């Protein structure tokens, strides 16, 4: 089968399996690039693709400046594509399995207190000067991301009916497509309540969604990223990217450095696998420091 038709069949299968809109778009872009590359190299049929084609494509991406993490993500998409082709008996084997993942430098950047205050101050100033919805929404987005660690898709889909200010919880559709409870503090609940009153005054009719565009329609993946791209330009931070996921990392960082147990962090972050949580604890947790302070061999030696 022509690889472009196989790609189309794969995309239709993802939609049929109710894959999230975000993942559908990622497949369309990341896997679509590989399909175009194969066609440019005159590898037109899916069964003609070999492991060296996959490797050459990833090397091409590397020369373009793609990081190891990006290359591994692309490889993951290509593997999923060929898994589907094998299941549908379009090809005999998954040639992408033979290509090894690249080693990644594990470094996760987080915001420091000064950077958080700088972002909040920017929106506070806008609120005083303009009283615009843009300013109130930006301020509330930062507080919600930072105070809950929820994901970008979860905040886009958050409705006022999901906000329980009395019991201090948010109800979100998590990564596993099930409803999950997220705890909020009284401080965040107070800010959400004030933001709700502002939305009622600002819009003729309040939306079902907590965070909306200026025309009172639900935010999209693109519109929320534009918010943070604009904020990145205003802040001009050189050591950290201004993005929703950086706020999630910052939330986890504060939990780990506070001494919270790995089990509790897993529940707060809603990680399905404790091994993901342990990566963060290994980087940021203070348990090793405390253990070293207590049991270091130099403790019992007079110097």
Could you please describe the fold and organization of this structure?
The protein has 303 residues and is mainly alpha-helical. The chain has 2 domains: 3-98, DNA polymerase, domain 1 (Orthogonal Bundle); 113-244, hpI Integrase, Chain A (Orthogonal Bundle). Helices cover 59% and strands 4% of the residues. It contains 13 helices and 3 strands; from the N terminus they run H-H-H-H-H-H-H-E-E-E-H-H-H-H-H-H. The chain has helices at residues 3-16, 21-40, 51-63, 68-87, 113-130, 133-148, 152-156, 186-202, 221-235, 244-257, 262-269, 274-284, 287-295, and strands at residues 163-164, 169-173, 179-183. Strands 1-2-3 form a 3-stranded antiparallel sheet, with no helix packed on it. The radius of gyration is 23 Å and the shape is globular. The termini are far apart. The mean pLDDT is 87.
